## 1
Amino acid sequence: MSDTAPNSFKNQPDERGHFGDFGGRYVAETLMPLILDLEREYRAAQADPAFAAQFDDLLEHYVGRPSPLYFAERLTEALGGAQVWFKRDELNHTGAHKINNCIGQILLAMRMGKTRIIAETGAGQHGVATATVCARFGLPCVIYMGAEDVKRQSPNVFRMKLLGAEVVPVTSGGATLKDAMNEGLRDWVANVHDTFYIIGTAAGPHPYPEMVRNFQSVIGTEARAQMLKRAGRLPDLLVACIGGGSNALGLFHPFLDDADVKMLGVEAAGHGLDGDEHAASLLGGAPGVLHGNKTYLLQDEDGQITDGHSISAGLDYPGIGPEHAWLKESGRVEYTAVTDDEALEGFQLLCRTEGIIPALEPSHAIAAVADRAKQMGEDEIILMNLCGRGDKDIFTVAEKLGVEI
Amino acid sequence: MTRLSNAFSKPHAAFVAFITAGDGDTAANLDALVAGGADVIELGMPFTDPMADGPAIQAANLRSLGAGTTTADVMQIAADFRARHPDVPLILMGYANPMIRRGPEWFADAASKAGVDGVICVDIPPEEDQALGPALRAKGIAPIRLATPTTDAARLPQVLEGSGGFLYYVSVAGITGKQQAATAAIEEAVGKLKAATDLPVAVGFGVRTPEQAAAIAAHADGVVVGSALVDLCGEFGKDAPAKLQELTTAMVSAIKQAPKASGT
């Protein structure tokens, strides 16, 4: 925790893309001119009302925004403490928050005259969202996906193919998300003239962390206005799960300067933080440089990157967005971690109390909410981002519960 | 004169040979490169996520890490090389995270004690120089920068600022080991770079044959070969030294027959 709080928590990053000591542009020279060009084009788009109008129109009529703000009455009763409210981003087209960012980035790609889209995906949610916007705008699309993930997530692989994307299984390294990102960067460095890389979370070289956060901030901006209208006040605690951290930043960022609103980010503790099988970069990692930015990473004493583990394929990236690293060190946001088993309990709790099947990613946040709500008064409000629906996870859950389907 | 500047002051272009540390019997492999006539040794530090490298060097990284290579091992390999070859320049090439894990000062100090002459860090562009550059310069180690086909005239001065040793021109926008750029394009690019700096300019990425090396040597101050040598390490394992020496000898012979580039 720093000795003096900054005047605002919302004016990061600096002009070089640094969030305090984190973030930056740690890329090979071949990509550097392109990154600078991307930043110029993004600034121009930000200043262009027509860009914002097109983004807002697509979010309303294609994605289905604003997403509802929902008071989870039976869950609140079951927990016996603070009121629990959900921002329902699982009701978006494609079933998660990922689409918000993909709409923004593909509009920017077209503005820059790029004619080919690439992306990486872990569980396949960002791949599906990217394939969706590419189909919508008629651009060819290549999705890099770890060969292990291709096997584990075959329904999403089929969805991407239905949408016209080419899915390339990546066999290098451990054949998971970080290796898919390496392969995406290798493609980009060789095709910089016509290709736009749609990064799926608030990480990577500047301006990606800032840009993705801004596109996702629609979540928190809507939620803040909805909460003021429905409850007449701001929530006491915001909760969101964190893999790379884009859904959490999307919810948190518009509230950062509301000093009375506490925030809790929930990492994946996998089999427990005391062992090696987790994906909690902030709580169980150390600062380092990977994939274009300085941030907390899962790594050994020599700086070799170690594989993350989580029941949720969307959380097992060994890094985290650099703004979260800064928010942790500044003390503005509290971070905790939830195990596979606790997330599985959260998943079932929400199914039974609210008739909502959540994705395993926000099931981590539900477990944290269940813990905190009991410690808070009935007049207090928790707002959680329900960032994805669970249809994709029913096979994983059935296996963990020992059920054959 | 430093070991590096001496290497670029010979009557022929310098042959810069790259292999990955810990991939096979590295000491024997390095000795073979020197015996074959390599002017500069570029020793790769293995990393789990070598995102600027093609399949050949990716595989070498995995072989090395699979064999348990640590940063301490890399420094020991360098120190032992320096003891055996007091006059042959040695540079470390790798990625930021293993280099800054214990702090840039720790790394610069360890490299200095091991007799390292220069460092190429793929993913620290001039914009992030503070992450490693000041620590290297304080120890007299040359931070060697990369220029690429996408580095335009407006950006080049920033790339050159604070760099040392030589300028490494990446001849193709892409990853290591892939196709080579046309000789005419390389000649034009090297000409522009040499007009902007007094540093020697070495050209790499995609150079696999003595013929290609000779064509580049006619225009550049150095030729970098990596993937072709690394492939030999992977294919021949313990028997790699003889193969490495053979290819290096052929490369150096072809380079010596090429007319020396002017203006160094």
## 2
Amino acid sequence: MMRYELFIALRHIRARKRQTILSVAAIGIAVMILMVSQAFMAGFTQELYSKTVYNLPHVIVSPQDGDDYIHLYKNIVDKINNIDGVIASSPYLVGEASFKFKDNTKNAALKGVMPSRENAVAHTKDDIIKGNYDELTYSDKSIIVGDKFAEDMELDIGDNVEVSFPNANPVSLKVVAIYDTGTALDESLTYISLHKAQDFYDTTDVINGISLRLADFNRDREIAQMIEDYGYNAAGWTDNNPEILRTIAIETVSNNVTLGFILLIASFGVVSTLNMVVMSKVKEIGILLAMGASKSSIRFIFLIESGLLGLAGAVLGTAAGVTLALSIGTYPLPEGVYGLDSIPVVVRAGDVLTIITIVFLLNLFAGLYPAQKAASLDPVEAISTH
Amino acid sequence: MQQEKSSPDTARKKRIALSANSGKKAQKANHSTHPIVQLQNVKRIYTLGENKIYALNGVSFAIKKGDFVTIMGSSGSGKSTLLNMIGCLDLPSSGKVKVNNVDLSKLDDDGLTAIRRNNIGFIFQQFNLIPTLTALENVEIPMIFNGESPARRRKKALAMLKNADLPLEYANHKPNEMSGGQQQRVAIARALANNPPILLADEPTGNLDTKTGHNIMELLKELNAAGTTVIVVTHDPKLEEYAHTTIRIQDGEIIE
């Protein structure tokens, strides 16, 4: 049997089509804005992570205090690889070098890596825009440079660049690939093979750092601590790049504040709409009371109304918001302006559910006042004065 | 106000046959001297700023089961306050109101609601039907409050409407699609929905033309004959002729 409170609430909603549409629309628009901005926020956060944390080594291991190098590194690399949660490790030897091509000279970092392991940690291969990353594995005399570096030096694939440094063995290396990360590294970091780097700096088989990739990048501090317990220095990406976390935190806070205000406005819309409904229904409420409806029934009727309006608004707003967000996501941005092809948009089921639930509950809460007001009407006055 | 056609005799006989059951009970009740409504020195005082207004100033009377009573008084005499007392919508400032032998002063809100639901059927001057509901649904509402099953209440509501001489084609009309007399018939059917022992009417003919008003009063008379205690509050002396008993009220006091 349908509860009569629901029956009467549905009648009210149906009888006042215009008000119903307006209040559902008010809630719906607020939910839509929530949905879209939530999708943007999630999108930008994900973009930020993929631009940074995705390519960043999650943990960097450096030599013990007082040492320049990590000797006998294979041992420690094995140990680290056995730590639960470490999915890749890449030992490297990095130093400074001077580069010369034609009349152009430049100083930049020279990083000797094992190409496939470096790729496993930092997804270096994904950033290659020209040439072949794997050439680094095949030929010792290869170098990979950033697009900014190549531009400054007027270099292209196949060109030979002279590399030298005090106390180092000068060498001529062929550019086999050019990468673009969209960061400052494009100008200041070059890759060669680890073996070649050890030759260049004239060292034995040593390294001066290991970068790690973790299954869960949020565990960076925990795992860095475990490595420190082995006697090496280690730091997580949150310690190496605190500005990324700070940016995300500021983004999140400012977004949540804005979203909260939007929700508040929507809820006030519901309160005032329902209040109007109560005012216009005073006499009817009086009649229902006279005919034997209990006060709790009257309260329940108006709570149902606010809940239903909220739910309808939330569902419609969500549909509109998701559609809008996804269609904005496909809109192409002018190339190269923001370093993005399109506005990053991520719609997550969890967000959708959360928003619908919060809006529904908020509306129920907003309905409490008008419902209480209706329930506390005096039937005598309600019938005689209206 | 549009006039309605008077009902054919056959319908009337049928109706009386329909309520024959409660009629037997009523005859028994008629013989008992047990009052169904009892007021003892009832005062109702409204405070308006610093002034105290005595809407009722020590009213005492009793209404027997099965009686047809008019409570006469001009506007401002306190008759509406009296109606609210009997209808369990308001409580006295002092004194005692007993409905069906229950002392109202001992009840809380929910208790009053229950007494009202089971004992009183209201008929108003303005009909006070719920505009968003059809005639049938309006009659069903009090039964819904009383927890009747949908099938039973639909059947009963149709019988009630028939009993109140509403042509059946109006059962699915909304109040604004009916004449005043038809609306009042729906209101009477609604008032009777839970078989209350008391029918409380506030100026039931006030918004109707003379002929329709007469038909409505005749209907009330028949319901009374079938056992329901009818109490009509009015300022119209013409309604006196339908009643067995008349209580006159003036300035918050009984004068006769």
